[in-house]
Hints:
The protein is α/β, with parallel strands linked by helices. The strands form 9 sheets. A 6-stranded mixed β-sheet has the order 4-3-2-6-8-9, with no helix packed on it. Strands 29-28-30-33-37-38 form a 6-stranded mixed β-sheet, sandwiched between helices.
Amino acid sequence: MPFPHVVVRSDGENGFHGSKLKTQHGCSAWFGGSGRHGCNATAPSHGAASGNICLELSRSMNPGYFDVRGYSNWTGYTTEVPPGHNLFVSACGGNGGDGGWGEGGTNGGNGSSGSDATQWSDAGVSNHLFSTLILWGMAEAESAGYGTDGGNGGNGGNIEITVREADMSLLMALEWIYQGGNGGARGIHGVPGAGGRGGRGGDGITSKKPGKGGKNGRDGAPASTFLQDGAPGRDGSIRFTVLWDDERISTYQSLYDLRIESWALQDENDDGIFEPGEHIMIQDIVVKNYGEMPSPTNPPIPLSILPSAWVDPNVEQEGVYVQSVQGFSAVGVTGAIIGLIKPEGSGLRHPQGLHVNEAIQLISTMPLINRRLSRFQATCPFTVQYPLQLLNPVYVEAVTLGDCFTIQWTVLNISTRPHGINSQLRRTCGTRICTDKSFFEFKDHAASSEILRNLESIDPLEKVIFHQEFQVSETTKPFTESHIWLCLMLSPPSYVHSPLDRPSSLGAILHPVSSSDLQIQVSPKYKFNHQSSYLLIVNASTPGTFIRQLSAFVEQNLLLELDIYNINLHGTLLQPSGDNVLQYYSEKTIIVLGNLFTFFGTPGRSILDFMDPVMVSRLLSSGTTCLFLGLEDLAKLTHNWGRMVETPLFPHDETGSDGSLHGLAVKPFIQTLEQKYSGNGTPGAFRTHSITIKKRFMRKGQSTVQSKAKKLAKVLALRYPLQNFICRALPLDGSKKPPLVMIIHEGLPLSARILASPISCNVVTNSLEARFQYLIVASLPFEHRARLFWELASLLGSGGRPASGFLQSAKVRDEGPVPDPSLATLHQMEQTIYNSIQYDLIQEVCYFGKGGPRWSDPLSKISLSSRLPRISKFFSLSPENLNLEPLTTPGNLTWFSSTMAQIQLATSSNLFGKAHSRKKLLSKHLKNLISNSLTTHFGACNAASLSTAMKAQIPTLMKEAKNLRKASQKGAGIPAAIEACFAHINETMTFSGGGPPFLDIGVHLFKANRTRFYTDAEYTDMRNSYEAFKVQLAADGARSMQFRQALVKQVVEADPKSQHDEI
């Protein structure tokens, strides 16, 4: 921060500027007249030189002030500088004046016109009565005025400052300047005038010629000299005179300039660690004087440190001073500066221990004048930490009732000296482990809630390993958030253990320096239940409250059963029999909690790392739904892992035992594929076919084979819009026998269901999130929900209400009565069934209608039932005529007629896409299905009334769809009919926030991996990704087995270095 000034000046005066005239004239002389010369500019004056200043500084009688007295040519001058001010001495030369600007010359006048010819006289030339030149119409311009050079700057003055030896410290409050003045800027010459134009000759007549025009006048002459800036003045000088007490007089050209050259940091107990509560010392300080003048002798200059977040300088200590340092030399400072590293405050300690980068700021303040030496400072960095560290404990994150498990932890000495009660430092240290006995009990000390273990001695860089066994209490409830607290304890640095100290008193001396909160989840063992509709995969990082809420919703609200599998408890999805637990849930729902978790000490793991994509693909193709709640790793789900799920690359089976086709050419393959699956919907998943290419194509090279594979991919995409394929060309081997050069891999169809929600499941609330409730019901198998859809239509149409447990299968419902859920819950479940069925059907209609040909469609010659699996399944589940009476409560079936209208409306080319033949085929097919189903299910009379109600809703639905299409964002990639469906779900389920109520990952993967040609590099990359996944999966399985065998199933023997227990 700058100090205010008391100013002493002897600056030279600035020079005057030259005149500034108009450098360019726009006016001209009268007709035929010459221009006027421009005036020359006046010259500037030079800057005046500064005078010399001679001052003597001395201490004042007023405390904090110092006096200033002039001598020599400044004799008689006195002033006083108050505390907190600096003396500023200025001896600058004056600036030279700027050069003048010359005036511009005026333009010459234009010549006058000649007289016209008459019958008595010839035409006249341009003339004027006053000049021979002007007689010919000529008028000259005049020269420009001259500018002038800039004035020179004045020289700076000389400053002489005198002090006595006792007053040398006053020079720290002195500032000065003695530079020469700046030269003035050069002027500007005037612009010469332009010559006048010659006059026009007179006009002639028939017998007389016209007169000649006059010549143009000459331009004025420009100035011929080169202008220069003024020269700057010479800088002055400063010198310092010291009147020594021994009557010597010394003169110096530069002031003393002290700087710190080097230093050393030392901790109090010399173990190389700077820890809280310990003194830190700065010693071996070397100071160098970079100026000519010696530093002050009396009083000496004290050194100190600045306070900081971790350093307290207020420590009782002897002062450390810098004695006089001769010019351009260095000296060592005797003594050490001591500071205290502040102790840590109360509160929880970090698991990794304290590690803070800090620095000591070393400064010096000049006595008497109270000025900090600006260049005398040093930053001494160090790290605040403890000599002992608690390494990451080794433990299992999940246990089950009755388990006996072990926790292992390690203490590391990072200092350079041994620690412990038997070490030379005799410093007490150890670890304390605490538990809540209602959850976990010490196996060897069941009555205790904590155990303290002392360290007798731990050498530098040595590790000491501890073990402790626990027993899970039989009273612990499942998914209880249980904790074990582990602390590293250390006595203060100044404390020295005495053999007379009682062991029971050590706990009061020790304080925690590092702590770990070990959260261990108590989870029930997995048991497969054939009646379960869901498998819930959890992890130890999920709050137990959320798991209990989800379980209660399924079991108490939906009256369904679910199995729970904890990945942290088992470490892998593989059972002891070798079966994958996922394969037990074909045609069911697998709910996966997608939050990241810690897996045997490795944080940030995802459940996707343990779900074999090939196994998941098989389950999805068989009708299983995967639902991810609280998803935190969306990128992995939609990219690498998702790509392996969507298109698993199985090796081809040349025998064809799996239904695959081999040995056919392209056209026979397409025909056979159509015949083989015409009655079974889209092709079954994951068959790998091969096609043989004729020899004549093989001779044309690999590019021809690749071209045919690309064409085949386009054909398959056109014929199977809801099924993905991968076509690739094998490299030619050059043999005479045609090799299998084209491979076709089947991928997942659009009907494969992977749903997700990014809403966090780590936030504990009073009830299960509404969107989670919707997704849990909507993730039930499509066929099960479709049957319920038709049952609800029959029941509500006749005035009935669904009974409790209507989500259960008929077989389960017949086994006995179940408790009645609330009417609000029943209505919510009914609405979820309507909305989820409507979404699934409209989704299939939209993606089937996209991308078809505008005119001739190859699907026009086949039944669309084989291409629309959900539509076909839905309408095939409509029971036969129930001989119902006319609908008694048609108002209860508004949702039914709305669903049918939405399905039909999804094929409208005016709303949801271009008109082409495929949508016409689809529209006709759906009309027939809806009409037949209404008649079959409700009878002809009731079908007619429902059809009328359906038609009545279409105008309103079309208006809503048009408004939504206008407001929808282009480029989102979601068909407008699907957006309308999302909006309907948000409205009827009262979801807030807008946007899609969930993420349909299955559709995303289907769109991202549409039928196409795969290059060799892409295929190799896919295979390598899956091989790497299997390697990591095996490594995780081995790691989990190793951990659980060491920490749960087996009792680990104590390490020889482990210390004795102390209760």
